[in-house]
Amino acid sequence: MRAGYLQFSPARSDVPSNLRFIEAGLAKAGADLVVLPELALTGYLFASREALENVAEPVPGPSTERLAGLCRREGLSIVCGMAERSRGKVYNAAVVVGPDGVVGTYRKSHLFSSEKALFDPGDSGFLVFDVAGARVGVLVCFDWIFPEASRTLALAGADVIAHPANLVLPFAQSAV
Ligand code: ACM
After folding, report:
1. For 4, 64, 106, 132, which has the most beta carbons within 10 A of its beta carbon?
2. Where are the beta strands (DSSP E) in 11-100?
3. Residue 142: CB within 6 Å of ligand 1?
4. Please, are residues 61 and 113 in contact by the beta-carbon 8 Å criterion?
């Protein structure tokens, strides 16, 4: 498997613009699996829960449909951070999407700092997905600081961990 990433600064609350950027980036990716940032569709910073709810989407939903179409066109799979709305809750999620649609959704377990006032804690547990012949575990940003998260994915058979992030920690930025 050839894995890559598309790193960019998602525009806040502007899903159409972020999808356009992702479309252009995937067209040049040349990879089997592309990892996008945490909250790639909406941006990371929200003034209120209400502002977040206005742009959160169900999975599957309009954006994952669009992403699946892009995956079909480019012949690849992605792991994409997004705000997922489900039964009155909003999760900081990462969706795995391939040419046939949504493969699965991981909901961030370890919410960071002010995220706790906006998002509901993830309830998916740590998940490993079959993507392009590999077992892909998924974490979102702050999850990475807890070794048990990666260990759980390794014990569940992950060959690789896809890790959408929006690193606001100074020591983490300098380590990238
Ligand atoms: C983070 O979890 N975005 C630091």
Report:
1. 106
2. 33-35, 77-86, 89-98
3. yes
4. no
Nearest to 140 by CA among 114, 159, 121: 121
pLDDT of 175 > 70? The answer is no
Interval 109-136: pLDDT, tens: 999 999 999 999 999 999 999 999 999 9
List the one residue out of 74, 101, 104 whose CA is nearest residue 4. Answer: 74
Task: Give the residue carrying structure tokens 């690193």.
Answer: 167
**pLDDT mean over 7-34:** 96
State the pTM of this model. Answer: 0.94
pLDDT value of position 168: 72
Pocket test for ligand 1, best of 169, 171, 176 (most atoms within 8 A of CB): 169
Q: Which of 58, 69, 66, 73 is nearest to 27 (CA)?
A: 73
